[in-house]
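2024-03-11 09:14:02 INFO receiving multi-entity request
2024-03-11 09:14:02 INFO entity count = two
2024-03-11 09:14:03 INFO echoing inputs for audit
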Amino acid sequence: MAAAKKLMSVRRDWRERDVRVVLAALIIAVATVATIALFASQLQRTLVSSASSFLAADRQLEAENGRPVPEPWITEAMDRGLETGRMVEFSTMVFGSDAFQLVSVKAVSNEYPLRGELEIQGPSEGSRVQVQNGPAPGEVWINPRLLRLLDIQVGDTLEVGSRKLTVSGLVLREPDGGFSLSALAPRVMMHVDDVASTGVLQEGSRVKYVYLFAGEEASLECYYQWLQPQLEPSHEWEGVRDGETFSRSLDRAESFLLLGGSLAVLLAAVAVAVASRQYALSQRDTVALLKTLGLGSSGIGRLYLKRLGLWGVTGMVGGLLVALPLFWILTRLLSEALERPVPFQLDSAALTPALLTAVVSLFAFAYPPIRRLRNVPAMRVLRSQPGETGREALPDMLIAIVAVFGLVWLYAGEVSLVISLLGGLALLLGALGVLGWVLVATLRKVRGGGHAWRLALVGLYRHRRASLSQIAVFAMTLMLATTLILVRTSLLDDWQAQLPDDAPNHFLINIAPDAVDEVAAYWEERGQPLDQLYPMVRGRFTELNGQPVKEVVSKDQRVGALNRELNLTWMPSLPADNVIVEGSWFEEGQTDGVSVEADLAAALDLALGDELTFTIGSDKVNATVTSIRTVQWDSMKPNFYMAFPPGGALTNMPATWITSFHLPRDRKSELNEFSRRFPTVSLLEIDNIIERIQEIVRQVTQAIEAILVLILAAALVVMAAVVSATLQDRQREGALLRTLGGRQSLLVRSTMLEFALLGGFAGILGVAAAEAAVWALQFRMFEGAFSWHWQVVLPIPIISAVVLSLFGRWQLRPVLSVSPMLLLRRLE
Amino acid sequence: MQTTNSDSQRPMLRVENLTHRVSLETDTLTILKAVSLEINRGESVAIVGRSGSGKTTLLGLLAGLDTPTEGTVELDGAIISRLSEDERAQLRAHRVGFVFQSFQLLPALTALENVMLPLELAGMEAPEKRARELLERVGLGERLTHTPRQLSGGEQQRVAIARAFASDPAILFADEPTGNLDNRTGQEISDLLMALNQEQGTTLVMVTHDEQLAARCSRQFHIEAGELTEPVAQVELAH
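2024-03-11 09:21:47 INFO inference complete, emitting structure
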């Protein structure tokens, strides 16, 4: 069947403009969705891995009751094939040659760290090295600041309790040196086997036993199921998602990528729908002829179904050929930002949505018009028959819209995303209806003539049905692209605001009340003023409405906050990045009440008016919940679950003060002087972590930009599809106009004006619908406040008008370059 | 297939009381009014009439491209209105050939492939050999690999004629076969058509307003405002 086969070959199809558009749309859709899904899964692995290295393991079990956990718990974990490790953390005084210092000791077993690396500096002033083990027995690694504080050198000895240990290295960074405020004093790291010989730990000492676990996710989960019933309240099981501080940035990047992917799906669907309808129209003569030559409708159906299948395969293969190198590049970019890159891994499950996109857009959007080809009357070979009115296509369109939004839902797993986008589209179509009515009512009065403006307006009116459907598709495309641009802008702004270059990167903790002014003045003089200082009182939340909280709150609700001492504070005014969601902030002079952080309130079912009791040392403090507020945990500033008013119940409790400030990297040495001047103030350095987050955000931003480019390419394909749909008609009109004596300049100007009007209208509608969709999305997916982005939004209708008028000019090329007669004959 | 060829005396085409109406927005238009005719095997018949007289509609109904509002068309023993669309397609594939005014070649296929297409659709053997022979016969043996765009109007119509005869049809329908061609080319094309028709012994039904071409057929019908006037004998017409 050489001839019939040739009729179906993709190579032949490629020569047809509409098929090229369908294939390009499919390829871009598959490429975008696949790249995004692959990258999102890579990002997810990076996230888990980074978070794991924040724990130095996949999971941690902490015992805060000063006793090790029963040995069988650990043996059970090993029996289940999990890697395990052990740490003991406590504070103690250490002695150098002739000075002593309170330090925070971390004694680790041979396995530490199970995940991530330690960064140390060896004995010879050598370079930094990354190692995956702690110090050997008999040795210690210490925080570099201790060299000055104790006036010792690497190689000297240090006394920990009754044991002398050799300083064999400096700890520059620990994988689990996250944001825990327990690490107040400078670090001394030793081997866990040496702990007993120091004699420091006595019955009742304040000590924390930490157990590390790593292994297959399923095994970890199984083990936890086994362990959970045996855990006591003082035991805390920590997973990667619990200790998140920086994961929110990446989470939101992931949301963004999913949104991008969903938009790619929608855009591809639109392009496929437009181009395949156009293709179906152009195939009617061929179908009529094939019928005349004796091919039955089922044969016609098979012929085109086979062709759709070939397109599908071409789209999938082509899409993957684009996606894989792109994914590789993006992963390389991300890896460069990470110190411990996650190996490049092709997650084949991530490809499913991409392939599904191709199948759904083909069968929901391309198949219906092509299926209707079977109904083309054979009589068409003798005489042209009335075409489709578009009414037949309506039920198909509804099914297709359901299908594609179902796909988005499946893909992004966000109902709110689907609703926001559908809402935006509905708004757009409503506005379009109004515009159509206005167009018909006002343009009807315009009379044609030798003026470009009038010709353009008459053109719009004469093609009003085509004009409106073009505006609809352009506006939809612009809406989707603008949505993405807006979300990207607000995401980047948000990240920038969250982690500006001068974000606080050091915490000062344990500032005695009488040293507060002095410490503030110290940094003020050095040009690095402190952020607000907060008092901090440690206390446990013990009773809720007079009942012991552990009885009132079900075991499922038990959050970490109940198991440990909370940092309570009082503050005169609401921090700028906190938002009251219920109740109201303390009034001037009010001394009772407490403001609770929203997530904790939700987890414990706390409501306004609940009476909370805190145990602080041997005292009890009562307070009624007067407000619930959200907190920016990743603001790198002190944040509190519980805030009291000044002069309230906390005022007389023993407090120390806490603050954060920014210190540039090149001035880090000044910290030594500060530590000597204020030896009791603890310093928490988080500059390394912040730099890492900033670098990751930068790389993810690049990935997002790359995705945006892909989406915009998809939008251009849609535009090309729509414009090429009317190409022949417009060329014929242009040729006729020239034949009848129209000047070239008139033709050019009126066409460009007509397209500019189309683009302008579509731009205004699209941008309005995008703002509406973003407004809805911002609340639900990105948890940010909505703000208008005039600077982004305003140029879009203008750009769309300019681009479309250039498109129009480009369309006219053949009309202007050849004689009208030749053109008319060619278009016959 | 309901066709039976056993009775070679049966007319190739029998039309009884054929009426065709189309509904417009406001009223109904009657295009053909109670047309009846019979065409025997091997005959060549011209249907002559002015634009809008209904001759193309009649041709479409005779060839089974459309179904009438009333009346019957019996083509080679099969009553067309009783066949399903697919059965009509089958009938066309095996028994019917077409030549159109606007050639109707598939632009993406070469001359050879255009001629092979109906052979392949009818499931015939060695389609390429047969297509080559026919293209040689119509004088295009050197142009096999050319696409319609690379051929002149007359050449395109030759390809169409080769295609029409390719599946060895019992009956050939031609719709203004010279309508898009200049006089001389038109003459060449009508010569070729009549010659092939003779050689193959095909029944020919042709719609035309070209009196000269019509005169070369054995019988002529005139159609005006949807009504067919009695066939006039060739001899009487000459007087």
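2024-03-11 09:21:48 INFO post-check: The first helix of chain A runs from residue 2 to 8.
2024-03-11 09:21:48 INFO post-check: Confidence is low (pLDDT under 50) at residues 179-183 of chain A.
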